[in-house]
Amino acid sequence: MLRLPPFTYLAPRTAAEAVDMLGRHGNDVMPVAGGTDLFPNMKRRQFEPRILVGLRGLKELQGIRGSGLEGMTIGAGCTLTEVADHPAVQQAYPALARAAGWVSTPQLRTMGTIGGNLCVDTRCTYYNQTYAWRRAIGFCMKKDGDICLVAPTSPRCWAVSSSDTAPVVIALGGTLRLVGPGGGRTIPAQALYNDDGIKYLAKDPREILCEIHLPPADGWRATYWKLRRRGSFDFPILGVAAALKQAPDGTVEDARIVLGAAYPTPVVVEQARMLVGQRLTPELIESVAQSASGPAKPLDNTDLTMWYRKRMARVYIARALRELAGLPVTPAA
C-alpha cells in the first residue's frame, strides 16, 4: 500500500490569504483543491510538498454564472460533476460538459475540480510509476533523473498534457483569471501552458487559478472526442476539441481545432483555417483531418502505440468535424 508522506495542511479564508501562504513557504508548498491528482503523485513521491494550502473553502473559486447569450463564468473550484451536470453549461457549451463528464470516474469527478483539471500534471509511462519502479530504471528527467527516457538525446521532457477540459476551453476562446502576489490578471486559456513536460504551466507558482470565462456562444458550436484504452476512467491519450461558427447558408465563418494529450501542451491546429469560407462536405472534412493531424507527433510515452495514436488523430478530427456537420459518425475506437 502506498501511503501519503506527512504534511501540514493550511486552510486560508480568501484567495489573497492563499497566495500569501504560497509565497511564504517557497518550494515546500503546493495548493490543493480536490487532490485527485496531487495525492496519488505524493504517494509515488512525484510531488514532495511539506505544506499544502487548501483551496476548497474559498468562495471566490465557487459558482457558475451567466449564460450562452452573455458568456459564462465558472469558478475554478467547481467540481467536474458540477460542470458536467449544469443545465446552462450543457445547453450553451455542451463540449465542455462532455469533456468534464469524461474525466476519470464518477467518484473522482465529485472531488476533482475544473481548475485542477486545467492545471493537471503532464503524464508519461516512465514518470507515472511508484518511487521504487522509477528508482529501478534510474529515474527520468521530470523527477530525480537527468535524461528523458522516451527521447534520451533530447534536452527536454516530453511528458504529455493530460487535461480533458483544456482543449475545449481553448477551442471555445476562453480566458482565465489568476490571482497572485501582484493582484489579479486575465489571460487567454492557451497562454496558461508552456511547451515543456516539466514546466508545463506558464504561471507563477504563487498564482491561483480562480475563474474560467467563456465568451458568448454567438453561433459557435463545439464538440470533444477522447481516445483512451478504457472508456470508464482512463486519462486521454488523444483529445480533439473542434469548434465552428457557420453562416446561415452553412459556410464556415471561423473554426478552431485543438489537440490534447499529443504533446506537452494543448496544440492549436492552424490547418483549421482550411475550413473557413467552405461548406462542410465529407471530402473537405477528410482533407482537413489529414492535414490537421500533422501537429500530432506522439512518442512512445503513453498507452497504446505511437503509430496508432498518430493515425487516430486523423480519425478523431474527422469524427469531430462530421459530428458538427451533422453527418453520420462511426463509433469511437
Describe the structure.
With 333 residues, the protein is α+β, with helices and mostly antiparallel strands. Among the domains are: 8-56, Uridine Diphospho-n-acetylenolpyruvylglucosamine Reductase, domain 2; 234-325, CO dehydrogenase flavoprotein, C-terminal domain (Enolase-like, domain 1, 2-Layer Sandwich). It contains 11 helices and 12 strands. A 5-stranded antiparallel sheet has the order 4-5-8-6-7. A 4-stranded antiparallel sheet has the order 9-10-11-12, sandwiched between helices. Strands 1-3-2 form a 3-stranded parallel sheet, with helices on one face. A hairpin with a 5-residue loop joins strand 10 and strand 11 (252-260). Helix 10 packs antiparallel against helix 11. The longest helix has 20 residues, at 306-325.
- General form: globular
Residue fraction in strands: 15-25%
**Average pLDDT over all residues:** 96
Fraction of residues in helix: 25-40%
**What is the radius of gyration computed over CA atoms, rounded to a whole number of angstroms?**
20 Å
Stretches where pLDDT is under 50 for at least 5 consecutive residues are none
Sheet with the most strands, sense and barrel status: 5 strands, antiparallel
**Number of E-type strands:** 12
The largest beta-sheet arranges its strands as 4-5-8-6-7
* Structural class by sheet pairing and helices: alpha+beta
Per CATH, the architecture of the domain at 234-325 is 2-Layer Sandwich
